[in-house]
Amino acid sequence: MNFRNQVAVVTGAGSGIGRATAQALARGGARVIAADIVPESGEATAAALRGEGFECQYMTVDMTDTASIAALAAAVQAQFGTVDILVNAAGWGRNAPFVEGTPEFWAKLVALNLVGPMSLAKALLPAMMARGTGARIVNIASDAGRVGSLGETVYSAAKGGLIAFTKSLARETARYGINVNCVCPGPTDTPLMANVPDKVKEALIKAIPFRRLGKAEEVADAVLFFASDRASYVTGQVLSVSGGLTMAG
Fold this sequence. Notes:
This protein has 249 residues and is of the alpha/beta class. The chain contains 8 helices and 9 strands. Helix content is 47%, strand content 16%. The strands form 2 sheets. Strands 3-2-1-4-5-6-9 form a 7-stranded parallel beta sheet, sandwiched between helices. It has a two-stranded parallel ribbon with strand order 7-8. Helix 4 links the parallel strand 4 (85-88) and strand 5 (136-140). The chain is globular.
């Protein structure tokens, strides 16, 4: 897929699905802004891609902080102009019983997994709308938001909200020629999964028809489809990348 001369912002680009997406877009010709809260990780992604001869620049962002999100949007637009592709890949969760959660923990989950992506989209959308056509927004939710997940109740609620936000925003922005879609990974081999106990991972793998965890690159492939011209007539859609684990309607 050819993304030459397109400006792409990828949050959570320091690791996992965000990093794989930033790599794939850059290798496809996009000018990528790799945004992450951890400077060492985000700069490592950008530096590696520059070493391969691709365009990638790290910018810091805290997706739980609206001021940080506004600063990222302002810096990107000042340096690169209107963004063509926004991938909201930053996300985080922790497995724990709902009744053991605290309001502070819930607030962090909702801020990072739902409010942050909404805030960044809002900051970048006016310029996209003014241009009138061709922009793409891809939100990374989770199949936990489609079917629920044991021990991830509030995370699932936030991701379910991101799915609903995707569909509603797609309706609002279609008149401007902007596509908004959502990718829902299932269990994927990322640094976040590395913190899951082995017994839980083994149980997940047994439940997955393909009998393995997904790869970050496989999720990135779905993102690239939505970000490309091949999805020019696709908006408001949700695509699961779960090895068949969640065959939700």
